[in-house]
Amino acid sequence: MRMLQFILCGLVLAGSAFAQQNAVRFTLEAELPKVAPGKPVRLRLSAEIEKGWHLYSVTSPVTPTATRVVALPDSTVTITRVLQQKVAAKFDPAAGASTESYEGTAVFLVDAVLKGEVKAGPVDVTLQLRSSACNDTICLPPRRRLLTASLIADGAAPDAGAGTIPDGFVEAKVGAAAPVGAPAGEGLLGFLLGAFGWGLAAIFTPCVFPMIPFTLSYFLNREGGLRQAAVFCLGIVVLFTVIGLAASALLGAGGAQALSSNPWVNGGIGLVFFAFGLSMLGAFEITIPSGLLTKMTAASEGGGYVGSLLMGLTFSLTSFACVGPFMGALLAASVTGDKLQPAMGMASFAAGLASPFFFLAMFPSYLKKLPKSGGWLVRVKVVMAFFVLAMMVKYLSNVDLVLHWELLTRERFLALWVVLTAMPGFYLLGWLRFEGIGKDEMVSIPRLLLGMLILAFSFFLLAGLFGAPLGEIDAYVPSSAKASGVAFAKNDLPGALARAKAEGKQVFLNFTGYTCTNCKLMKANMFPRPEIAAELSKFVLVELYTDGADAVSEANLTLQEETHKTVAIPYYVILDGDGKTLRAFPGLTRDPQEFLRFLKG
Fold this sequence. Notes:
Number of strands: 20
Structural class: alpha+beta
Number of domains: 3
Number of helices: 16
Radius of gyration: 29 Å
Helix content: 40-55%
Strand content: 15-25%
C-alpha cells in the first residue's frame, strides 16, 4: 500500500543540529589512538536517539530509509566493511515491506584502512553519513552530514589486524537484510506461505493438472512407488530452488533493491508478463527446446531413484509455460527481503506444486475423485492470461513513475485494469469468444458465479476511475494528482502565489515527499473528507516535494528549513498572496476537527 513513511531524522555532528529537530546525535571516534599508514583502523559511530524516534539500519530494505556511511574520494581512509548491531526485521503493513530500526541508542563499527600515503602525525578521518528516522507524526527528509574522528598516523603503531565481529554485531551489506538473532518475522513467513499457496494454485493450469494421473500411475505401478514419488517431488523442488539461487546470485546484495526501482528491470518484467499473457491467449507457444526435453525424458526412463529425480526435473521444464507467470511474480515479490529470499521463495513454491503429487501417491484412492481434464483447464488459462496482462500494466507503471513520464496516470492505469479484469468475466459468461467455450455451450453455475465475481471486481475498479477510494488496491495504483477533486500544483510555489494574489485567495502549502507514508495517509484519508475538502477548495493548493534526489527537491528542502526551521514532513503552511506565513500545522493527525480548525484559522 502506501510506499513508505520513513524520511531522514536529523543527522547531527557533535555540536551541530537542526534548530528544532535534534532527534539523533552522532559521534565518530577511532578505537585506537595510533594507526600505521596502510593498516586497518576501526571507527566507532555512535547514535543517541531521542525518545520516540527511530533510526534505520544500514540493511533497512527500502533505500530512502537506510543509514549509509561512505568515505569520500579525498578521505584519508578506505572503508572495507560496516558492522551494525543485530536488529530484528519487522513487517510494516503500511510500508508493505520489512523494516529495521533502532531506538534509544545505536552503534555502527566502520572497518577501514588508513591510506598508505598519509603522512605521520595527527590525522582527521572524515566520513559522510546519510540516515533516516521518523516518530509517530513526522519524518525528517534525507540529509547528509560529515563526521570526523582524530587519530595519529604512526608507522611504529602495532597492527590491529582486520578486527573480529563482536558479539551482538553483524556485517551490514547494503541492500540485504542483515542476519538477526531472532526470526525475520511475519514478513518472511507470510512471503513463504504465499509462495506455497501460489504453488498449489499452479496445479490447476493446463500444463500441470493433466499430468497428475499419468505421473502417479508411473510410480504406483512400480516397486517402492511412494519413495520414488517422493524423489520425483524432490526433483521439482531442486529445479525451482536452483532457479531461485541463480536469481539470488545475479541480484547480489544490492540488486534486489534495484529490481524494485530500476526502470529497465521493471520494463523487462513487464515485457515478460506481456509475452506470457499473449502466449496463454494462444498467440504463440512458449516451449522448452525439444532436444533438451527428449534427453531428459530418455534419462528418466532408466527407472530407479535417479530416473524419478530426472522425471521431476523434466516435469518442471514442461510446466514452465504455465507456471512462468507465477515464478515471475514470485521473484519480483522477493525484492524486499534477504538476498536468499528468491531461493527460499522458489523452494516454497515448488513444495506447494509438488505436494499434491506426494499426497495422492500416499492416498491413491483420491485420484478417482479428481475432476476430469477438459475445457475448464483451457478456461483457467484464458482467465489467467488477462490477469497476467494486468500485472504487466503494473510493472510498466513502475517505469512511468520512476522516469516521471506521467503517461500511465491513475485514470489511464485504472482504465486498462477495468478492461483487463472485465474481459475474463465476459469470457466466462460467453460474451467474449476464446478457446475453451463453445458457441452454444450453456453457462454452468460455477462459471456464472465466477464470471459475476470478476465483473463485480471490474466495476469496483471502475468506481475508482471516478475518484472512489479503492482501499488496499490503492497500493498498486498510481496516486491521484488531485485531493478531493482539487488539483495540487507541483513544485511551483511562485505560480501558486501569483494565482492566489490574482484571485484574492490564500495558499495551502504542503511540504511532502514521494516516499512519505504519513503524507499519503493525510492526502488519502484526511483531505477527501467532505468538511476538509470544502475548506481546501477555498485555497490555491501547492505541494513541494523535499525528499527527491533532484535539484528541485533540494531547493524545496532548503526553503522549508530556512523559512520554517524544520525539515519534517508532512508540514502544512497557510500563506497569503505575498508569501507571508499565517499559520502552520506540523505532522500527521487523525482528528478531522483539529485539522479543520487549522484550515479555518
